[in-house]
Every structure is written in C-alpha cells, then in structure tokens.
Amino acid sequence: MTIKRVTIQGVAGCYHDAAARLYFGNEEIETVPCDSFPDMFELLADDASMIGILAIENTIAGSLLQNHELLRKSHMQIVGEFKMRISHTLAALPGQSIDQLTEVNSHPMALRQCEQFLHRHPNLKMIEKFDTAGSAKEIAEQNLMGHAAVCGEYAANLYGLNILCREIETNKRNFTRFLIIADPLMASEMMPPESEIDKASIVFTLPHSKGALSKILTILSFYDINLSKIQSMPIVGREWEYRFYVDLTFDSFARYRQSIDAVRPLLNDLRILGEYKACKNEI
User: Cα angle at 41 between 61 and 194, to 5 degrees?
Assistant: First the structure.
C-alpha cells in the first residue's frame, strides 16, 4: 500500500502533525514539515501526489484569513475536514520540578492561551518562539535545563520531555478546524461517495447592487441549505466590495447542486473549493 505524504505547517509533533495522524487513523502516513503556510502550498503545487492539512479556523482566535486566500489562489480542493481540541501541556527535561524552571518557550498564541496558569508561576519568564512543537524539540536537542515548553502532549512525548502539567490552557473549549486538501487529480480519488457528502465550501463575489447577498441567502434557504459559516474579506483595489467564503451543509447532495445552479447566475467568480463529508466529532 502506498504511504500517504501529508504536508504540515510546523515541525514533527505539532498540532497539524497530530491532527493528520488522527484524521487518517490507522493509515500509514509520512508528514512533511513546512516553515509556513505559503511554503506548504508551494510544495503541494510542485507535487500532485502530496496531501495537505490546513488549519482554517479556531474557536478562540477565529478564522485564519491568510489560509482562506491561499486556498482560493491555489488549485487545491478540499476533500475532508477534522476538528481537534487544542490542549496544552507544560513539559521540560526529566528530573525537574516547576519551581526549578526559569523560562517557558512557545508560540505567542499558545502562551496567551495559557496566561492564567503561567501567571501563577512568576518564576517562568515567557519567551516567544516560532512553534509549540519546535520549542519542545529545541529544549530536547540542546538539553536546556531550566526551560519548559508549552506544547501538545504528542510533541512532549515525541521529544522525550516530562509532562509537568496537563490542560493548562485557560479556556478548555479550544478547538481548531483543519481542512484536508489535495490536487484535483488526487482529490478525485479521495472524495467520498455522493451519498456521504453533506458539506461544501464555496467562494464568490457579488455585483455591487442593493440586496445582492439577501437574494442569495433566500435562494439557499428555499433549497434547505444551511450556512454553517460565512466569512467576508475586502477585495484589494475595489473599495467597499467583498469576497465571501461560505460553508454550506445539507441533507441532499442533489438539492445542494440545484441550489448552486440557482444562485450561479447571480454571483461573480463562483468557485467550489470542495465538497466533502462534515466532521462529526463535536465535543
């Protein structure tokens, strides 16, 4: 069986890595680290056999707008989604207690998400780093005593760190939604059967006329299509005009396709980013 190669943003052990392994379950995969999301899309464009996993929104931080645009500008298609709880640990080299530590390293967002816990330990000076898992890797490889990382449990275990505390994030309802993306040729092989498709992501612009968006919503409602998310972004160079990223959920794939045919004449630049099976692992 061919091993799937999946691009991730971050180093081995990061949340993208963990999400990829959970999404593909028992399938054997090889994750390919990238420094940034643009690098990830470049790698995907160069190798049609690659699959990507892309964070698209977080319940605390909101939408990752850059990733919406990267996806639109690429020719990649969405073939699936995965929702994962983001839970942080405090991890350090074995043999140390929290009181012996002087510094905590992590991505700035992860540090902010754990501020209440970290403020209870004023001996820990917060130092921002590029990545959560990268912080764990650096501590392990450089044998940095006195340093701790805020990272996922998977990363702590991968790099042999001792977990001192679990679930240190302030808000326990911290989830990230990831999209599974692929080249159209690869996507056609990974698509679920139509009977299982119950979600789609589309992007479009609207003519600059009164009630344009309202008309679209009315038509979608008529076809029993639910808008699970709508994200607007300004169009650079066109004042007060917007591009809309919309997630649709539905019970009937045929009705959904009819709704797309009905709204298409009213839209500019409509593109279907993907039709896939919604992730049901709500917690």
Answer: 85
State if pTM tops 0.85.
yes
d(CA 192, CA 201): 15
Cα four-point dihedral sign 203, 209, 214, 218: negative
H helix intervals, 28-126: 37-46, 65-73, 108-113, 115-119
Helices marked H in 51-192 — which ranges? 65-73, 108-113, 115-119, 132-141, 153-158, 184-190
Quote the strand ranges of 98-257, DSSP E. Answer: 103-106, 125-128, 147-151, 162-165, 175-182, 199-205, 226-234, 242-249
User: What's the pLDDT at 162?
Assistant: 98
Q: Which of 189, 170, 171 is nearest to 180 (CA)?
A: 189
C-alpha 260: how far from its chain's center? 26
pLDDT bin (cut points 50, 70, 90) of residue 59 is confident
The answer to whether 146 and 100 have CB atoms below 8 angstroms apart is yes
Residues paired with residue 246 on neighbouring β-strands, in sequence order: 202, 230
| pLDDT tens track for 220-266 | 999 999 999 999 998 888 887 889 999 999 999 999 999 999 999 99
- How far is 274 from 79, CA to CA, in rounded Å? 6
Residues 71 and 79: beta-carbon distance below 8 Å: no
